[in-house]
Design brief:
- The chain is of the alpha/beta class and 325 residues long.
- It folds into 2 domains: 3-114 and 225-324, Rossmann fold (3-Layer(aba) Sandwich); 124-223, Orthogonal Bundle (DNA polymerase, domain 1), CATH 1.10.150.170.
- The protein contains 16 helices and 7 strands.
- The relative contact order is 0.13.
């Protein structure tokens, strides 16, 4: 077993629920839009068998390397197409595979445990590293360091408040701009110290690392994660076969609310504004059913796998063709 394979040995979140809700059968086509180290994909590969097709997408070269090794070693006869890219480009990626449609699609959003554990990526506020935050350094140019050192105070506050839901955003932005006037802010440790100084002691005592929300906001902004999710969900729903199933696991409220709104919209007869006197949208339901409330991990899993504590899972089932005609 390679070192890379070992490093990616993490427990996939809510695997049993994903497997049950995707309900894949032998010969079906499964698309994992966030492949990682193939934690979920290994279980789905068992369900679709050698007659099925597994499509895996990730923008991380290391993840693709590990997933290739794990899938080929466990299921040597599996038909798999592993593609480098972001699910925001799902249309282009699936067209390259020449597949007519997908039976099951999974989004396991956010940053993986292995990416957090790699100090050079800068995702973690627990280790000292360069302020990077890029999911794919080979194609992305904007880094967290550039944002922190060049964006004006108002823009910094907006990013931290909007994407981190941080109530001390304005104060943190002010402390950042004051500190960078003295010296360049280049590392995660520097930024953590600034955030800790900016947040009043009483608020810091409320629990958790005070840098968590700011780091989240920078990661989301650097990688344009919410726009990518919007585009990815829209494309995924188009590619679902009639009766196909989609599952999305999110780890913060902004992602979860976006998934919730999209899935709810897909079940509705009308999406006109509430104040409209009559329906003019012509919208027809695309889903026959979708989760009304998110699934959360069981207490046993939450204890064993810390990543699952904030996870919320939502699902949708595309209508059968007869229902949409």
């Amino acid at each position: 077993m390679s070192t890379l394979t070992f490093e990616y040995r993490h427990t996939p979140v809510m695997l049993a629920q994903c497997r049950e809700l995707l309900a894949l059968k032998p010969g079906e086509t499964y698309c994992d839009c966030t492949l990682g180290g193939a934690g979920h994909a290994l279980a789905m590969a068992e369900d679709i068998g050698a007659e099925g097709l597994l499509i895996g997408i990730d923008q991380d070269d290391q993840a693709l390397e590990v997933a290739t090794i794990r899938l080929s070693q466990t299921f040597p006869d599996l038909k798999a197409r592993l593609l480098k890219g972001n699910f925001r480009d799902l249309d282009r990626l699936l067209l390259s595979v020449s597949v007519p449609g997908i039976d099951g699609i999974l989004f396991d959003l956010g940053v993986s445990s292995s990416q957090i554990d790699n100090p050079m990526r800068g995702f973690s506020y627990a280790t000292d590293a360069p302020l990077d935050f890029r999911m794919d350094p080979s194609t992305q140019t904007l880094t967290a360091a550039e944002i922190i050192n060049t964006f004006n105070e108002a823009d910094l506050a907006w990013i931290i408040r909007t994407y981190g839901e941080e109530r001390w955003a304005s104060r943190i932005a002010r402390f950042i701009t004051q500190e960078r006037d003295k010296t360049s802010i280049a590392t995660t440790s520097q930024l953590v110290d600034i955030i800790r100084a900016a947040i009043p002691a009483a608020a810091r005592a409320e629990g958790g690392n005070p840098a968590k929300r700011t780091f989240q906001s920078l990661r989301i902004y650097v990688n344009d994660e919410l726009e990518a999710l919007k585009l990815g969900l829209e494309a995924a729903i188009r590619w679902l076969n009639p009766g196909g199933r989609i599952v999305a696991i999110s780890y913060h409220s902004l992602e979860d609310q976006m998934v919730k709104r999209k899935f709810m919209e897909m079940t509705q007869e009308c999406i006109c504004p509430a104040e409209a006197p009559i329906c003019t949208c012509g919208h027809k339901p695309v889903f026959s059913n979708a989760s009304k409330k998110p699934h959360i991990a069981a207490e046993k899993e939450r204890t064993a796998n810390p990543r699952s504590k904030s996870a919320k899972l939502r699902w949708g089932i595309k209508q059968l063709k007869a229902e949409t005609e």
